[in-house]
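Support request from a user on the community tier.

User writes: "When I paste my structure tokens into the form, the page sometimes reloads and wipes my input. The last time it worked, I copied everything first. Here is what I submitted, just in case something in the input itself triggers the reload:"
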């Protein structure tokens, strides 16, 4: 007997400890303004697997009962009416009840309520006094049975825990819905103007410092172009883009509009979790309803489904209310017709003695006759060609009514004059005539001409050294007369194995050339530093400053360690 009592008291003590921390109460938001609704959430510790019991939660809010819905075995939710400012108190009682017992009693209550509804309807339309008396007795009897069954349900529950939570509701204020700097629109054209046929990108950049942070707020963009809704693609970095081609657009102005919506991330996530849990339980109750042959139990499960439909719809409505318009921005895109004559480039970089560099000329409109494009340059060093064979100082291209839509290519070349000219600027000019194009102006092409780049003369290009403290040398000469003073800086790239020109270990050396001594070899002495080293090839770097037409040479030490 004593052992049994110890066992019972142990269970009671365990239940008491469990009951003190069974429930966690939370609200969907940290703070509220008046006229908002609060979502009150209850999370409970899991019951033992295959338990015959289940939780029941009863809540009061501000002294009045608040209906609390079961979303899952351990999740419950209630929704308040629109709040008024002040401190709010929410109280919860958590009960344990037997699943089968409550399901049986509740199914009987639902059946009795259906009967009561029928009797009440009959009573309203009855005129026979005897039948009215019978129906009245039946109604009274059913109401008594329902009260009795409800009392049995209440009596079957065991209180586990009572908890409360308070929160404040601030007075209603006017929330700004136009945070102007929270959204910035820009396009891939600096002046928002595109030639018809070009591809365009509109970028919607968010500035979280004006509405919180990306961690606090969910963002969404609704966009329209020329009054038609379009899809804005998230770049994953807090911005959005919309890409389109102007080829299908007429010329003129088009308005792109972007609406930025914000939504409290933590609150939204709380509601989504509740919706997911409720959705799973709804499917479960529907399966129970459809698989039972007990009509009363089927009605009980349908009642549960109806409750879940009600609360899920309410949660969806609240989730939608979290989304608010923050700012609307517009950007005007201008589409202009392509010019009558189109050049494929606006500038060219040429090197003396290099291969031909091409560009194309295209007509955009059919001519009334032959159109001649006369091509000239302001520098006699430039050669022009239509076929990369014969070169001319000026060139005429003819577009006919048959070939006007076919681009024609101009090839440009600068022969090597063996003179150090330095970097020069020039232009290629175009004049159009005939075929209705006489008034058309075609831009010039800016040309930059560079002398060919020649390598330093390093003789020999490789030297062979053996063992520690070995030494050797090589000579450095400029390949041509420079335009001014030239410095050649030599770096071992090794750090410590070699000494150059008897300087410091691992350090480089500098040679100086000018227009008088450019062709006089300067010697670089190389001494192995005594640090040993590995058998391998050690490259040296030669950096030339002062003349862009001269580059470094390839030089290396082929070293063999003893």
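"...and here is what came back when it finally went through:"
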């Amino acid at each position: 007997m004593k052992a049994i009592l110890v066992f019972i008291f142990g269970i009671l003590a365990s239940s008491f400890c469990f009951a003190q921390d069974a429930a966690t109460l939370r609200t969907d938001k940290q703070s509220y303004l008046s006229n908002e609704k609060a979502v009150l959430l209850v999370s409970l510790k899991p019951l033992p697997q295959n338990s015959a019991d289940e939780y029941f939660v009863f809540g009061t809010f501000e002294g009045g009962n608040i209906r609390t819905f079961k979303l899952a075995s351990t999740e419950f939710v209630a929704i308040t009416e629109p709040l008024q400012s002040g401190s709010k108190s929410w109280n919860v009682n958590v009960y344990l009840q037997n699943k089968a017992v409550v399901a049986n009693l509740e199914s009987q209550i639902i059946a009795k309520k259906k009967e009561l509804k029928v009797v009440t309807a009959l009573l309203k339309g009855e005129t026979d006094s005897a039948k009215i008396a019978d129906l009245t007795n039946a109604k009274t009897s059913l109401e008594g049975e329902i009260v009795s069954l409800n009392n049995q349900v209440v009596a079957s529950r065991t209180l586990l825990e009572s908890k409360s939570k308070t929160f404040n509701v601030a007075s209603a204020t006017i929330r700004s819905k136009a945070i102007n700097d929270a959204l910035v629109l820009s396009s891939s054209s600096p002046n928002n103007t595109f030639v018809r046929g070009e591809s365009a990108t509109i970028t919607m950049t968010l500035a979280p410092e004006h509405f919180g942070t990306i961690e606090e707020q969910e963002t969404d963009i609704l966009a329209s172009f020329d009054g038609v809704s379009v899809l804005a693609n998230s770049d994953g970095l807090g911005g959005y883009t919309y890409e389109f081609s102007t080829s299908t657009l007429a010329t003129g102005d088009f308005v792109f509009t972007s609406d930025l919506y914000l939504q409290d991330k933590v609150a939204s996530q709380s509601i989504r979790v509740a919706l997911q849990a409720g959705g799973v339980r709804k499917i479960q109750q529907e399966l129970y309803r459809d698989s039972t042959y007990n009509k009363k139990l089927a009605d009980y499960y349908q009642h549960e489904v109806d409750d879940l439909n009600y609360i899920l719809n309410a949660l969806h409505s609240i989730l939608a209310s979290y989304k608010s318009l923050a700012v609307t921005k517009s950007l005007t895109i201008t589409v202009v017709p392509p010019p009558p004559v189109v050049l494929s480039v606006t500038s060219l970089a040429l090197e003396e003695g290099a291969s031909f560099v091409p560009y194309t000329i295209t007509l955009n409109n059919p001519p009334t006759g032959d159109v001649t494009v006369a091509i000239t340059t302001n520098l006699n060093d430039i050669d022009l060609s239509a076929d990369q064979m014969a070169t001319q100082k000026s060139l005429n291209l003819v577009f006919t009514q048959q070939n006007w839509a076919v681009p024609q290519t101009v090839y440009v070349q600068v022969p090597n004059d063996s003179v150090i000219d330095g970097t020069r600027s020039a232009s290629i000019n175009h004049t159009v005539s005939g075929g209705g194009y006489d008034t058309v102006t075609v831009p010039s092409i800016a040309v930059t001409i560079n002398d060919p780049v020649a390598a330093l003369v390093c003789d020999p290009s490789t030297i062979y050294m053996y063992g520690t403290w070995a030494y050797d040398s090589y000579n450095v000469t400029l390949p041509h007369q420079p335009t001014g003073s030239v410095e050649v800086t030599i770096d071992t790239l090794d750090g410590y194995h070699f000494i150059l020109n008897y300087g410091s270990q691992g350090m480089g050396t500098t040679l100086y050339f000018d227009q008088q001594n450019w062709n006089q070899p300067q010697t670089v002495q190389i001494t192995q530093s005594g640090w040993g080293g590995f058998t391998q090839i050690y490259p040296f770097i030669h950096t030339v400053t002062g003349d862009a037409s001269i580059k470094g040479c390839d030089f290396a030490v082929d070293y063999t360690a003893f």
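Agent notes: The reload is a front-end session timeout and is unrelated to the input. Residues 1-19 have pLDDT under 50 and may be disordered. The two ends are 96 Å apart (CA to CA). Escalated to web team.
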